[in-house]
Amino acid sequence: MLNNDWDLLLKEEFSKSYFQELVSKVKKEYEEYECYPAIHDVFHALRLTSYQNTKVLILGQDPYHNPSQAMGLAFSVKKGIMLPPSLKNIFLELSTDLGVKCPVSGDLTKWTSEGVLLLNAILSVRKNSPLSHQSIGWETFTDSIISLLNQKQTPMVFVLWGSFARSKKGLITNSIHFIVENVHPSPLSSYRGFMGSKPFSKINQFLQITNQKPIDFTL
């Protein structure tokens, strides 16, 4: 299904009754409404970044709900799509933090090959209806993923932007890991501490301290 180590790690989760019910609900939603991302991209983040290779988790809330934006990776949009406001602020901070050129494309796929898991807590959404797939079971599933990452014996970074993501902090109990948390990069809150917070250099400093290769965040 995912064609990497997540298949075995999540085997028990896939067999649970709540997950079977979730699959049925999601299939029904996709049959009756226009939903995002494309159904074959719902697990895109897990396919691209294996458990073993995950060095950084950037946790989003739910997929973009406007047409042509969501691609199964948190905060990412396909090439050629106008940058959403939150992603624009992420890129502005990336540019000032690391002194790199501000990316033009919002496709973050390259980060996944560097070991960044771009996971939304809710993996699907109905067109023009943010959080429409909240509380149908996705959070139970993604909480289990965060808990599995918490069990990793190699130190990693959990990036929690905004109150929703920060509410998952209680799942991260292993003291070897590092949490980068702040307000959400959306224009509504970014001025309250996101801009100038240097999350990317903090991530790489931690990876270097723990004898790991830093992330190449250039796009």
Explain how this protein is built.
- With 219 residues, the protein is an alpha/beta fold.
- 35% of the residues lie in helices and 11% in strands.
- The chain is built from 9 helices and 6 strands.
- The strands form 2 sheets. A 4-stranded parallel β-sheet has the order 3-2-5-6. The protein has a two-stranded antiparallel sheet with strand order 1-4.
- β5, α8 and β6 form a beta-alpha-beta unit.
- The protein starts with 5 loop residues before the first helix and ends in a 10-residue tail after the last helix.
- The model has no long low-confidence stretch (mean pLDDT 97).
**What is the string of helix and strand elements?**
HHHEHEHHEEHEHEH
| Mean pLDDT figure | 97
The structural class is alpha/beta
The parts where pLDDT drops under 50 for at least 5 residues are none
Outline, from the CA principal axes? globular
Radius of gyration, Cα only, in angstroms?
17 Å
- Portion in beta strands: 5-15%
* Fraction of helical residues: 25-40%
Total of DSSP H or I helical runs spanning 4+ residues: 9
Largest sheet: 4 strands, parallel
Q: CA-to-CA gap between the ends?
A: 28 Å
By oligomeric state, this entry counts as single chain
Number of strands: 6
Major sheet: arrangement of strands: 3-2-5-6
Summarize the topology.
Elements: H1 6-9, H2 11-15, H3 17-32, E1 35-36, H4 44-48, E2 56-60, H5 85-98, H6 109-113, E3 116-120, E4 125-126, H7 138-150, E5 157-161, H8 163-166, E6 178-182, H9 199-209
Parallel strand pairs: 2-3, 2-5, 5-6
Antiparallel strand pairs: 1-4
